[in-house]
Write a structure and sequence with these properties.
The chain is α/β, with parallel strands linked by helices. The chain has five helices and 13 strands. Strand 4 and strand 5 form a beta hairpin. It binds zinc ion. The site of zinc ion (ZN) has 8 residues, from loops.
């Protein structure tokens, strides 16, 4: 009898530990954040707004792309990248790398500017939809992060995100075009055969190609260019592709 009770208790503890691990993994934290954003954006309302969540696809060159949210209204196609980071974030729109400081004087992490990361998403959507200048680049930080030091109009905290629904821009998309873009993107999402694992493999492959001087955004060649602040690597497909890389 005691043996049975002990066994049941152990099984319960093991299950609790596994579930606990699962809900605290970075992936599930990211997922929760994405769900939260999806709730704020709301559902598709024909003629007014269109929403696509978790758009994963691969283009004919084999490059893959995962976009957290696409929100379409008459003021643009809002391409939304979510970040679930803690601590204080420092960054500027044109900086290649941003900094995360977990505690003053403590751990510092560098990460690729998410506005630039999202610019790659927009590049792929622009090619697919054959349209330019209708996209709005939006990066959303979830509540854990202090983003008051980021100098960019593209960055929102989760609490400010609802304001994009009432925000006007210089862009005008007619109702029939909104619906057309939505249907095209839905088709892209539904026809995609790529898995998350394959997508992660592709990211790794693109990082290796980057080391060999290949543009991770368009597959073009990276060439040495002279800029205001010195030399850098730029894509040979400029101005179509504006990817740049610092000289190591
Ligand atoms: Zn390129």
């Amino acid at each position: 009898m005691i043996f049975a009770v002990v066994t049941i208790v152990i099984v319960i503890i093991v299950i609790a530990v596994i579930l606990g691990k699962k809900t605290h993994s970075p992936e599930s934290k990211g997922k929760r954040g994405e769900n939260y954003v999806a709730k704020i954006l709301g559902d598709t309302i024909i003629g007014e707004q269109y929403v696509i969540n978790d758009l994963l696809f691969q283009n004919e060159k084999g490059q893959s792309c995962q976009i957290d949210h696409v929100f379409i209204n008459k003021f643009g196609i809002w391409v939304i990248e979510t970040k679930n980071y803690a601590g204080t974030i420092y960054g500027q729109e044109n900086q290649r790398e941003w900094t995360q400081v977990l505690a003053p004087g403590h751990e510092i992490n560098k990460f690729y500017n998410p506005i630039k990361q999202n610019a790659t998403h927009i590049y792929h959507l622009s090619n697919y939809l054959k349209v330019k200048k209708v996209f709005v680049n939006v990066v959303v930080f979830l509540s854990n992060a202090d983003i008051t030091n980021i100098a960019s109009g593209n960055v929102y905290s989760i609490n400010e995100l609802h304001t994009i629904k009432n925000q006007t821009t210089d862009i005008t998309i007619p109702v029939d075009k909104m619906e057309y873009f939505y249907n095209k993107l839905l088709e892209l999402k539904n026809n995609a055969t790529i898995t998350k694992t394959e997508h992660i493999g592709n990211i790794y492959k693109m990082q290796q190609q980057l080391q060999q001087g290949i543009c991770p955004r368009c597959g073009g060649k990276l060439v040495l260019r002279n800029g205001k602040t010195g030399q850098f690597y730029g894509c040979s497909n400029f101005p179509n592709c504006k990817f740049t890389k610092r000289i190591n």
